[in-house]
Amino acid sequence: MLELENVHKYFGSLHVLKGVSFEVRKGEVVVVIGRSGSGKSTILRCINGLEPIQQGRIEVEGELVDAHSKRVRHIREKVGFVFQSFNLFPYYTALENVSLALKIVKKNPVADAQRIAKEMLGRVGLSDKLDAYPDRLSGGQQQRVAIARALAMSPDLMLFDEVTSALDPELVGEVLKVMQDLAEGGMTMIVVTHEMGFARAVGDRVLFFDEGEIAEQGTPEQIFNHPQHEHLRTFIQSIL
Amino acid sequence: MPEIFTAFTYKDVLFLLQGALVTIALCAMAISCGLPFALVIGLMRTAKRLRFLRWPAAVYVEIFRGTPLLMQLFIAYFGLSIIGLNLPRFVAVSMPLILYTGAYMGEFVRAGIEATHRGQREAGLSLGMTQYQLLRYVVAPTAVRVMIPPSVGFLVQLVKGTSLAYVVGYIELTRAGYIVSQSTYATMLVFTLVGAIYFGICYPLSLASQRLEFRLRRHA
Questions:
Q1: How many interface pairs between A and B have CB atoms less than 8 angstroms apart?
Q2: Cβ–Cβ below 8 Å for B119 and A81
Q3: Which CATH class is domain B10-219?
């Protein structure tokens, strides 16, 4: 479903991804951990074509991701992205945030777009907030709208970029719960996170990013209970 | 009072109101032609893929913002006729106003476009939107809200700025006032009236923009 091969990414002279290769199978939940600056968020942005890569190959369902090509839009329709800072459209209600792309990108009739959007907001537990503007919602609610917005496009793959990092601690749970439900429903997901509890409970596989490379990967059990790489050991100690 | 002066009558008031209509027509011309132009300039100033469009737009903006409107009027009115280009008076007066409006409002458009948080653009992109859709549905709602206050400020300036057309002999409100005051000698009365008419044009604009701002801000 997703294949990365020897991906290199530079920001100017800064070499942020140094030959990253991995695969994600359908229905798999891959959790990416690592220090900030390790390249873990960048890899998500590259998969969605928000950042071009300088070397290597990324394929989503056999289709090459080229950030410079117009075809990348087609891939983005299949790949949902949830951002750390929610990035809702501030002048649209929750319902409009979710239904907008259904109308203009997927060209659904308005009634269908509304129906799907309501259904998605229901799935994330926000049926009572359809007409609320983002500034009237808590961080956790905003992030759930953002998840509904991505889900509405019926993606085959969902990318989560530190989606709970900007939330107050008491709001983290409601967002993780939605993500866990999604995972249990069979969604293919790549989750960049610092929530180790979530990684353990929901992740099928954990990738540890270190200085632009995958330093270690394995099941949550292997990674958390038997870390091999020295940096992984200190990383796990530092966050537990 | 000497004989050559005539009494100030309702006819003079009508003459002033006629001048006011010309002032309004000049503003309407400047806005209706200047705004689309400003949109183009704003888009050029923020162009990403066609980056080379940025500098001609910047040069244009700096020239028309950096020189007095009065000088631009002189050049359009007298300068162009010297090189053999004889424009109708209304066009010769409107043209610098349009270009002046394009330069200022172009900067407001640019500021409006740049006001959208990068994250929202990326959210739009990640949903598969085209650049046009992004501009239309994500950038524009923010841009319009950001543009309103400075635009109204500029519009009010513009209404008053059209009075500069009087120096080239174009009969708009200020020139009309000058003519009436010369013939009636009722200078104080005439220019108080002229001022009141300008105020009568500008104040509703400010009021309307306050209302609009309030309405749009409810969901900021």
A1: 70
A2: no
A3: mainly alpha
